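User: Run a structure prediction on this.
Assistant: Running it now.
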Amino acid sequence: MGFTTGFIGGITLTTSILYLTISVHQRNRATQSAFLRHQAATLNNFIEPAPPSPPPTSRETRVNWTETWKDRWNAELENAVRKLYAIDWDKVREGVEDRTAALWAAAFRKAREEAPDPPKTEASK
């Protein structure tokens, strides 16, 4: 092997190793940069949350009619659940107790009025 061949082989080997080292270093920096950007965005969103997205415009169309019916069904369920949560169940219970007590008292009062007098025995005379 001559001087020129060895010299060119050495330059090629050195350049290849240098290129691979720089390439790995650039990839590591890009990955670290992406991680830092993600962490910064997470911290910024934690401190100052992003504003809510605007409501959809009227130009958006539904995929199909089943999605429309699903949305209507979900809205009806949400309204029903809101109504259930708005009811004061203690007042409902007290009202049922009062009505039940009134019915019970009326039933026994009527039963006493309609019941015949017990026959008188000789011991009670």
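Residues 5 and 11 are 10 Å apart (CA to CA).
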